[in-house]
């Protein structure tokens, strides 16, 4: 009953995320479920949560229901629920109160990690999804810092106790829950060095392989010194048309094939939408090897290839999927990865992280990595979009269609939904406030991240931010997902005047779209690879004047460009000219030459 009601609500909100009637029905269902939980005796809580009720509750939590603030009429009720799980009650709160509170406030804010031994196995998935899973939305400024601190405590606690109690059945269940639900993506949106957290995460993944009868470590025999080609494997989860595929293609497409044999390795999962790209990728390798979903079988197949080196072309520092667990194993004599992971992997079997000197700080870059850092002579990432660039737009989007006057400055931002923290959102709205009449166009729904977005809380937060800063919320337009990347570029070319990048986790794939259509971009350069991707691309184009060193400089630069049409015109001309070269981040041949050098330096010499 509950799941059916929720499914109907989510279907309607999927069609129109701004539908207030269905949003209120969902919040009414949340309130009903919270009261049911509080009224449930301890002996009946487990069967209730294992029923349809529990599935509906978990679906709500998984979709980010706690991002919706409490309604005015339920504030007293919510205050009482939170009183039961915070302060002096935090360490001995009743489980039904914890579950009810989680529908309104994420447990990472109030649930101490020391309470974990008292959490039953059936409740672990809820706790781990809420506390250590990807966060849908941070409601207020400062929450990302609180999240970082509390997740750090949880990871420290889990790391110490799971390693110390590795034979315990309970702690092994805890480890299973960690592997299934933990994700470090939301930590990317902090300014902190994540090396230590990633290392502890990796050690837990590595321990799981040992406990469940896998062999993550392996000793290869010495490489034959007969002058033969370097046998180089490229391991990809799939060959679907998405950012990781486009960023991995240049790694192998133009290597020196007289010196390097390329073995492309991917899971045997086929989709119609990837057939064309699969053919394109396969044509740039000596052979294609398919592996099953099973970890142990895949390890055996890859080790039998006797590779000199392997490149792993996926993000290894986000979730803990079986593919990520596969990559924790020793699969070749030398194992490398690069910018698909915006932070270090932490795995002891990953030997080298290949970045670019334009995307790393001058001092202290190695401090962010457990791997040996090797830099190419350029940015961290290069893209080959195959035949994607040849597609024509399916629709023409004009200012009139978006309700935007022709004579105002339009700022555009394509940063993903999850990257839009309260701090970043406020920065963008401050730019609107300083540029009279300007508009902000957001298109944050990249389907590479997820197929569904719980967008109501974002609308509410933007409305509140605009009200607080004295800005009419109608000056912000949010565009639903577009059918194709060609449509995004066409929209930017006809509507946008200035593109605003995200921070601390800067854009790279999303930055290419405005640059391809000559839209000046404003970026902020931070102190790590994930906060220097965009600035590295602009330095590659010799456009340092579009790089800000801090938030205030970012605002000043954006406002200056918004108010100076002639300067925008000159910059647009420069950008268009430099994008025709192409820049290194779109030059597969440059990347191939650099990767050839890297491989020869590391293996042959």
Q: Based on CA inertia axes, which overall geometry fits?
A: globular
Strand order of the largest sheet: 3-2-1-4-5-6-7
Number of helices: 23
Intertermini distance = 66 Å
Number of domains: 3
Rg calc: 25 Å
Structural class comes to: alpha/beta
β-strand percent reads: 5-15%
The main pleated sheet reads as: 7 strands, parallel
Helix fraction? 40-55%
- Please tell me the overall pLDDT: 93
Low-confidence stretches: none
How many E strands?
13
Question: Would you write up a description of this structure?
Answer:
- The chain contains 23 helices and 13 strands.
- α20 links the parallel β12 and β13.
- The chain has three domains: 210 residues, no CATH class; 171 residues, Rossmann fold; 193 residues, 3-Layer(aba) Sandwich (Rossmann fold).
- It has 605 residues and is α/β, with parallel strands linked by helices.
- α8 runs parallel beside α10.
- The model has no long low-confidence stretch (mean pLDDT 93).
Give a quick rundown of the structure.
The protein is an alpha/beta fold and 605 residues long.
Show the helix and strand layout.
Layout: H1 2-15, H2 20-39, H3 42-49, H4 52-62, H5 75-83, H6 95-102, H7 121-132, H8 143-164, H9 169-181, H10 195-211, E1 230-236, H11 243-253, E2 260-267, H12 275-282, E3 287-291, H13 295-304, E4 309-312, H14 322-326, E5 334-337, E6 352-356, E7 372-376, H15 399-402, E8 410-413, H16 422-434, E9 439-442, H17 456-468, E10 476-478, H18 485-495, E11 498-500, H19 509-516, E12 521-524, H20 533-540, E13 547-548, H21 551-563, H22 565-579, H23 588-604
Parallel strand pairs: 1-2, 1-4, 2-3, 4-5, 5-6, 6-7, 8-9, 8-11, 9-10, 11-12, 12-13
Helix pairs in contact: 1-2, 1-4, 2-6, 7-9, 8-10, 11-23, 16-17, 16-21
